[in-house]
Amino acid sequence: MSETLTDVVTYEVVDGIAWLTIDRPEARNALSKAVRDGLWEGTHRFVADDSAAVLVLTGAGDKAFCAGGDLKEMAETSLEIPPPDFLPQFGRNVEVPKPTIAAVNGVAYAGGFLLAQQCDLVVAAEHARFAVTEVKVGRGSPWAAPLSWLVPPRVALEILLTGDPLDAARAREVGLVNQVVPGGELRARTQELARRIAANAPLSVRAAKRTAYLSAECTRAEAYDRAEEIWAPVYRSEDAQEGPAAFRDKRTPVWKGR
């Protein structure tokens, strides 16, 4: 069932996968206040939603995932430095322990690039484009600090210094995107990827996500130590016994998340 969070953002759970959609295609899904409020509400909804194992963030239509900030609104409000809670940045100003996927259905520029960057995985339509355009409009992109961890530093520098877009194929080539698919297959292919994740043991999935980010913030030795702490309760869980038992009995595991 689809639920309207604001006039321009919807939340829908399909087979355990939550779809958070910016529905403002006439404005290229730009980040107006109503969009930002809806994204915050949808993020909190997903974190608390036991029926949803994976979040997919996308935009309505086939032109834009999100073209970034609403420049008209910024001009009218004379926005200078966006406040810390300007919009949800997964892993920075809001913790989202479950996996997230950006389904990029068109341009992902500026704040739209931010939203895709902060998701754990990215599936892009063939016609998608990615750019950090702030240098072209005199704005800033402090949120791009993790970019040189996601892609090679020289690629990150080119993206940030030129403001020029990358097409989907190039974005996949440099590691910014996991899959590139035909536009008409974007939803189905993203749903299928999310289902494969959701079928796994939930405690293991959450611990795997935390482990993957350790190298961005710790030395190698510290990462190993913290990973041991992260995984200890997983090893001790009921699900850790259920997995081998299901393999032995030649049946599908029944995960309890505990």
Could you give a quick summary of the protein structure above?
Belongs to the enoyl-CoA hydratase/isomerase family. By secondary structure, this protein is an alpha/beta fold. The protein has helices at residues 33-48, 71-77, 111-118, 134-137, 147-150, 153-162, 168-173, 186-198, 202-214, 220-235, 238-249, and strands at residues 2-6, 9-14, 17-22, 54-59, 64-66, 100-104, 107-109, 121-125, 129-131, 166-167, 179-181.
Q: Biggest sheet: strands side by side, in what order?
A: 1-2-3-4-6-8-11
Portion of residues in beta strands equals: 15-25%
N-to-C terminal Cα separation, in Å?
27 Å
Overall CATH class of the largest domain: Alpha Beta
Q: Over the alpha carbons, how many angstroms does the gyration radius reach?
A: 19 Å
Q: Major β-sheet, in short?
A: 7 strands, mixed
CATH topology of the largest domain: 2-enoyl-CoA Hydratase, Chain A, domain 1
Number of folding domains? Answer: 2
Average residue-wise pLDDT: 93
- Give me the strand/helix succession: EEEHEEHEEHEEHHHEHEHHHH
Alpha-beta classification: alpha/beta
Helix content: 40-55%
Question: What is the CATH homologous superfamily assignment of the largest domain?
Answer: 2-enoyl-CoA Hydratase, Chain A, domain 1
Q: Counting H and I runs of at least 4 residues, what is the number of helices?
A: 11
Low-confidence blocks of residues: none
Number of strands: 11
Q: What's the overall geometry?
A: globular
CATH architecture assignment name of the largest domain: Alpha-Beta Complex
